[in-house]
Amino acid sequence: MLFSVTSFLFYPQKKQFPTSILSTRWRYLFASVPNLDLDDSFLSRPKRNRRRTVMEFRKFVDRVLLFRTATNLEKLCLKISKDTSRVYRWISVATTVRHVRQLDLCISKSQQSIKLPDVLFTCKTLVVLKLNIHAALNVREEFGALYVPDEVCLPNLKCLHLDYTGFFNDSIQRLISSCIILEDFFISCFGLNISQFNICHPFLKRLTIEYAELSNTRIVIDAPSLVYLEYDAKIAAGYSLRNLHSLVKANITPFPATDAIQAPDFLSANEFFRGIANVESLILGKPTLALLLCCESLPLFHKLVELKIEPYFITKRHEKGFFDLLQSVPNLEKLSFPYEVFRKLLATHLPEIVHSSLLYNLMMIEISLFYRNDPLEYCKYFLKNASVLKKLTIHTIPVSNDGKLKIAAELLASPRKSEKWSILVV
Q1: Which helix (H) or strand (E) holds 4?
Q2: Which terminus of the chain has fewer Cβ atoms in its 10 Å neighbourhood, N or C?
Q3: Residue 342 pLDDT
Q4: 64 three-class SS
Q5: Per-residue model confidence as pLDDT tens digits over 56-74
Q6: Do 275 and 226 form a contact (C-beta atoms < 8 A)?
Q7: Is the CB of residue 242 less than 8 Å from the CB of residue 263?
């Protein structure tokens, strides 16, 4: 019982020192807690002898890791910004002696070259590994490149997060392939320095790619178990997305390598969207909609039931418009988009032939960034033709309460096809 209580009190560890004087029985219990959160940021407080406090912190971590009464360590979180000289030793002890299951390593603002031990990449107990390192790492030929040893085996790793970490040659490929039961993979880096990045894994369920320079890299994804995909990075040189039959949700925000979208970007985007055509819920960040509408022919998202278009400034009209997009999502039930889409992506005349998604499936519409002078004809078109519509929500800026009531009254007085529906103007 006492051990359970102290497990909560001693997290993070910088708050646990005062508790050790409450009772002699508590004095050494911090060395047995299953979760360790070690953060040297408190060393930056004023009126401290920096050199002395750094040494004290170093000795404390040594004691906690080397002289633990409990053998196994559930979680170790290391946040280091001052002195990285012992990182190699601490990770070695955590992986080989303490059999850590989750390791979070965050190193920031360090000018020192940091070498990670090879035993980290052969740890059989690791289930979660998160590396967030803003420093020179295992430098071989390129500054800041993480060198993965030839022998890599992480048989129990299910979650791998690599944030702000560069890679040397094909080391990232070896790292991924060594995680035979990997389920969650997150990567955020400036560049991979490889011509083709393969993410081929039968058990991968979540994949996130952020802030990566991929203009010279082709992305290959083959993940039959993938449920969630988030892509917030530069457009790659090409894509090959295969076997994404289980994909449920995708959050897509590719952006061009230059300020202007070029023809190669459209070709790559076309490959990408066809690869995720099985998705059920889709979020399009800026300028994803422009890339999608510039595809030679819009892919058919036959399973898509929820579509959200993030607000962004549309600079030009496209050959394909908003209702062309609706035609490619025949089973859509929920639609969310900014009113800017109406201003730039609708033809002069609204289509007389109503798409099936609008007629039979669309139940919820949410419109954002509606200005007080915006016309309501497009909203009325939805009300007139959406036979199963249940709720129309309009987010206005800036509109007074009287203005909102006027908008709602005008829409309530317009013809509507659905028998049970409501309007919310906020």
Answers
A1: helix 2-9
A2: N
A3: 73
A4: helix
A5: 888 888 888 887 666 789 9
A6: no
A7: no
